[in-house]
Amino acid sequence: MPLLKAPNAEPIRGYRLIDHLGRGGFGEVWRCEAPGGIFKAIKFVYGDTKNVEGNSSDRAQEELRAVQHIKSIRHPFLLSIDRVESVQGELIIITELADQNLHELFQSYRAKGAMGVPRDELLQYLSEAAEVLDLMNIKFDLQHLDIKPRNLFCVSNHVKVADFGLVSTLSGGSGASSTKLQLGAITPVYAAPELFLSNVSRHCDQYSLAIVFQELLTGTLPFSGTNCRQLLMQHTQDAPDLSPLPPGDQPILAKALAKNPQDRYPSCIALVKALKGESEKRAAGSETMGFIELETESLRPAQNVPTLPAHVLPDYSILEWQGITPLQESWLVQSPKGQKRVLKILYGINTSDSKKVGELIARLNSAHHPAIISSEIVHQESGRLAMVADYAKESLRDRFQKCMYQKLPGIPRHDLVEFLRAAAEVLDYLYQQHGLQHLNLNPKQLVLDHGWMQIAEFGLAQLLWLPAGQDIAQRNSRYTAPELFERTLSRSCDQFSLAVIYVEMLTGKHPFAHLGNLAQKHQRVKPDLSMLPENERNVLGRALDPDPMKRWNSNTDMLLALEGSIADSSIIGEHAGRFKELINASRSTSSAENHPSSSKIDLAPNLQDLVNKIIAAAGGDTESEPSAPILTHENDVHTYKFQVSTPLGTARTKLESFFQQWPGKVQQNDEQIAIYVIPLEPTFWQRWRKQIPNLECRVALARVNAKSATPIEVLVQLKPALCHSNQLQKVEKELAPALFDDIYAKLKSCEEKRTQDRLLWPHTIKITPVDADGTAQDPIECRGKDLSHSGIGFFLPHELETAEVLVEIPNPYLPPSITIPATLVRAKPASDGWYEVGAMFRFPVVLSRMDIVCPPLE
Fold first, then answer.
1. Cα 290 from Cα 668, distance rounded (Å)
2. What CA–CA distance (Å, rounded) separates 290 from 516?
3. CA–CA separation, 347 vs 146, rounded Å?
């Protein structure tokens, strides 16, 4: 006879049933009173334990098998099993009694009018569940396979994982299930795609946990199917609908819900950490800092190799896994030549538009400088990129930790100022030339290579993560400028970060530690600089001003002010002066008609033609005259379009001086557009009606060629508002021409003194110095900077004794490279000890433009 299930019945002696708690496809659950007056939950599983062994279709047999897997596991967030009995062929499991499950908690919040469970509370519950699931996965090779809100139980404000009827073991970590999973047993709403194919992976539970997060937070599901067949197709083929989630959560859930299990996070904890934005932990010695010290969390992945296709870096050796953050994963690798490098897998990138991604990567590669840690994109796929970068042994954070171990408050002032000034000069150069900032600066991105300062991960935040909607401010909240919390860029974001780094690395105390929550910087609270000398407080206070317009004009200006003086920009340093004297002296003893290098070196004919081909093949344009300004007028809107040979950063700086000379108010001034509103003289009736006519001036700047710093296109639009007909005539005849002329003059006045625009050329070239008698010296490997039809810019590792050189440039045609005589015309030291040099080509035969014929590129 079946067991009696009614109040006061005792299916097992001493266990008295009290009331019915629930029923499902597995069986039913009652509250019971155990011996000693302790309340427990008693579960009756459908099926017959007396069936022939191996009949996996029987639910009781499956549940009994699963219990055998987990009965020896002990964890505070695992719902404990007190007793397992088979009574009259019916399986009975007695567990501790929970308060409610997460589905019931979600329903209670919905009844109060909330969208779902509050985010912080939900993430705390899922963090505890993730800890149990990872323990089962990594230590015991088990997957739960039925993670859903009804199987996560609340016990005294903590969550406990229960209902292990589908628990499956993994054979030797290979990801194959030791038992064949029945499709009808899974819950289709939460099941991973591989389960529909009767396969089990190490990341099935993570997939389900991600769906639980979206459902309990927003009340929506990523897949809307209403039956098993629809859900099977959606889980295995369709992209999840993550639009109800906050923008910052969408790429995280997209990774956790990847169709390929290997593309998900390495663990459930890694997923929850990414959602919490807590991929960092307290470091040793942080108590002395007066603030929480953040370091990258190291969550060991289940795999010993990165999840990349076999054809990516096939000859590289994987040395060790270095850590993960919500936006990237890092591995230490070794090249075939034995060099240590870092493999970074970047997540949260919008790769749907391949052409746009290609342009961004081209621009990223064009931002070349000896002080930038070089990197190479080695793989691209949906939602992520893989890149290999040079390995750096010591960061500014590491140097700070060494100083702390020596009982110092931080890095000595002299050393710190020297390091940060070098970084400031590089950041200023890159902004002026490319219109780019780092936007993710922190002490780990500032790397010391034998005492030389280098910068890591430059351009990733602005070019890859920001366009994809990533909240880069929250990811680097400790050092981020307040305007970035408001999704607004200013040209001094990096300056704010450098100032915070300086204070913290010098004193061991963060200037915003008194806030308690670094995200409050967006509320524009003043920093605490009481630990600094008074003269430094003024300098750093200006750099940390919440209003970007009140900060220093450049990063270098801030560091020079810290040094106690502002250098004359016309002085380029003792070494640079000597170099310049050498160039001038050498140039005076040579001439184009009697060029020493051309008399002893065989040169290819038509070098100018080959240079033009190289520039065209690299993505640049052939020589052309600057386009004439275009003026149009439609519906009272005046539009003015022209080009200037000025880098974006310099142009934006010049626009600010334009705004200062005209009466009005800056309404917007960021990386995309500048808007300036100029008030006009109101008429009598406008004053009476309190109407203020105005003229809105919009200025947009953009590169003409994604690979070239110049030229840039300038689009100016003037739009009158609340204007009378007489005022419109005045705008058209007087104000518009004056404004256009002023903007044009401002931007043209700062054009670099060259006759042609330059293509960015971040490639290795060889320079061979040539003595006065025409003897060629040993070649020197240099780093290219930019290339034009008449010259080249590059970085030279040391000074030369001559201004005459031979430049060897890679050529896409035969021969593999071309050699061109050139004369050095300018040189100045870079921040890392190299020299930034400009050279003018000296072609043996001067060709007119009509003589140059460039055949179509194949």
1. 37
2. 11
3. 28
User: Mind listing the pLDDT tens digit for each residue in 56-69?
Assistant: 345 666 667 666 66
8 Å CB contact between 503 and 537: no
For the chain, what percent of residues have pLDDT higher than 70?
78
85 and 78 Cβ atoms separated by less than 8 Å: no
HSE (side-chain half, CA atoms, 13 Å) at 755 = 6
- CA distance to 177, 437, 513, 626, 757, per residue, from 812 (Å): 53, 32, 55, 27, 21
92 in helix, strand or coil?
A: strand
Residue 333's nearest CA partner among 364, 304, 309, 365 is 304
Say which range, 513-527, 611-625, 840-854, has the weakest mean pLDDT. Answer: 840-854
What is the distance between the alpha carbons of residues 677 and 663, in angstroms, rounded to a whole number? 9
pLDDT band, very low/low/confident/very high, at 299 (cuts 50, 70, 90): very low
Sign of torsion over alpha carbons 546, 547, 548, 552 = negative
Residue 263 DSSP symbol: G
Question: What whole-number distance in Å separates Cα of residue 495 and Cα of residue 501?
Answer: 10
In 3D, which of 639, 641, 652, 673 has the Cα closest to residue 747? 652
Q: Hey, what are 348's tokens?
A: 């949260």
pLDDT tops 60 at residue 283: no
Which tokens is 691 given?
Answer: 């109407």
Adjacent-strand bridge partners of 83: 94
| SS3 state at 473 | helix
As a whole number of angstroms, the distance between CA 747 and CA 715 comes to: 12
Identify which of 495, 493, 470 has the alpha carbon closest to the alpha carbon of residue 483: 493
Residue range 59-83: mean pLDDT, rounded: 72
Alpha carbon separation from 721 to 691, 730, 731 (Å, rounded): 10, 13, 11
Q: Token match 């967006």: residue?
A: 522
Residue 753: other Cβ atoms inside 10 A: 5
For the ranges 133-147, 432-446, 565-579, the maximum mean pLDDT occurs at 432-446
At 509, the amino acid letter reads K
Average pLDDT over residues 495-520: 82
pTM above 0.85, yes or no: no
Cβ-based neighbours of 130, under 8 Å, separated by 6 or more: 209, 267, 268, 269, 271, 272
How distant, in Å, are the alpha carbons of 639, 680, 704, 803 from that of 632? 5, 22, 20, 48
Distance CA 766, CA 623 (A): 25
753-765 tens-digit pLDDT: 444 456 777 778 8
Residue 548 zone, left/alpha/beta (φ > 0; ψ -120 to 50; rest): alpha
With contact defined as beta carbons under 8 Å apart, do 794 and 800 qualify? no
